[in-house]
Amino acid sequence: MSTLQASLRIAFDNMLFPTDFTSASEAALPHAQALARNFASKIYVTHAVTPYPPVFLPMEPVPVELDSMWHDAEQSLAHFLEVLALKNTKHEGILARGELWNVLDDVIHRHSIDLIILGTHGRHGLKKLVLGSAAEQIFRKASCPVLTVGPHVHRPPTDDALFKQIIFATDFSAGSLRALPYALSLAEENQAHLILLHVIPLVPLHEQDRVAANARDRLAELIPPETADRCRPDCVVRFEFPAEGILTLSESQQADLIVMGVHKAAPVAASHLPWAIAYEVVCHATCPVLTVRG
After folding, report:
1. What span, in angstroms and rounded, lies between the C-alpha atoms of 101 and 277?
2. pTM of the model
């Protein structure tokens, strides 16, 4: 990726906020509001009414006027929008029948969604997301970036600088570098301190100085010259397992955002797969995590 491409300003004009009306969704909403305020975005608050019990044979859908689940969801959506008052934010509530991913995929394409914001309990990996196991599809399948707000995330600041400390974690693969423009643009937009991080496990002690120097040089090459003055970048190399290294640095630096590219990798131990790393970070981070699919 060239530095010219990486320095382009991103925009989040349309955001998708899936909800099941639980406390995890409520906790994620202030982050959606803060981003919408910064980017003058419109938020599409969406709930999918999934058929229950599942119907496997073709048949006519229950008419809306007789569908109690639909009416319950309709009232919950109205209450969700009113009580949490998306004041001064362009928003629209969407209620649709169907399986979760099918509904969201339709909203993504019909409304040109630039970002999905997702709340999660995150206790045991993404399969325990507030939206249930189907939420893993959002994380894996969404063509746009996903901002996940886990259970340990603090409320966003109320001042104009939404992100003051941003960590961009990369393994230098093409997939992980897909997230670089977002990290650079958000750092510039917020005049934030940007930390570029590369975590390397299992390097012999006598090799670490050489490996770290080489990795720091590669990280420095990712920073466009015109960006350096605006986001005060630092290049950090840690010798830990990736998820632990990202989380430890995030905590010590009191990061406001972690940015990661996620992608398929060659077969290795399951705990080291990029998706598994991203799951672990999302579940335990004290700040939102922006993932970009490679």
Report:
1. 23
2. 0.87
